[in-house]
Design brief:
single chain; mainly alpha; two-stranded antiparallel ribbon; 5 helices; 59% helix
Length: 183
């Protein structure tokens, strides 16, 4: 029977795709962990979504985030071998965002998440994606990541999550979002 654990990380280090191990608190590990959390948060959104049009888009994004994590996890000499996120994937996110934005009225003020279960899950996913973006930006600025499209992808994904939050709220019958400011 295959074990669910290896014990290889018990020393506080983890492997990369390539030679060597890095501490579990290394910026690469932090970025991969944040993207992994974003994938799980998007899964919660997919499980909560009322409108089925969102489901295949979220599944596609979750799969792409696994590819993105693979590239981040790779050593610099191996990263290009695992590169799957490119300008075409960023453009695809922009197309999805444009579609959902055309279906809803964009609020003029900040909104409070929670107008629907699916919308709240997408708002949460957006914040986790933003954290992942911050971690990846650090890698980019410290020259530990070569592919700028990884950073652009996460930036566009957070915008898409917001547009889908509003769209999902509509599917639940909430056409006017609850604004953060009162009165």
């Amino acid at each position: 029977m295959r074990s669910f654990y290896t014990g290889k990380g018990d020393d506080g280090y983890t492997g990369r795709l390539g030679e060597g191990r890095i501490p579990k608190y290394h910026p690469v590990t932090e970025a991969v962990g944040a993207v992994d959390e974003a994938t799980a948060a998007l899964g919660m959104a997919r499980a909560s979504a009322q409108d089925e049009a969102i489901l295949p888009i979220l599944s596609t994004i979750q799969r792409e985030l696994y590819r993105l994590m693979t590239e981040i996890s790779a050593t610099p000499e191996n990263a290009a071998r695992f590169r799957k996120i490119d300008a075409s994937r960023v453009a695809w996110l922009e197309e999805q965002t444009d579609f959902f934005t055309s279906q809803v009225e964009m609020p003029r003020d900040f909104i409070l998440p929670g107008d629907s279960p699916g919308g709240a899950a997408l708002a949460f996913a957006r914040t986790v994606v933003r954290r992942a973006e911050r971690n990846v930006a650090r890698l980019w600025h410290e020259k530990q990541l070569e592919n700028a499209d990884v950073l652009r992808y996460l930036n566009r994904l957070s915008s898409l999550c917001f547009a889908m939050e509003l769209y999902e709220n509509h599917a639940w019958g909430k056409t006017t979002p609850t604004l953060a400011k009162q009165g």
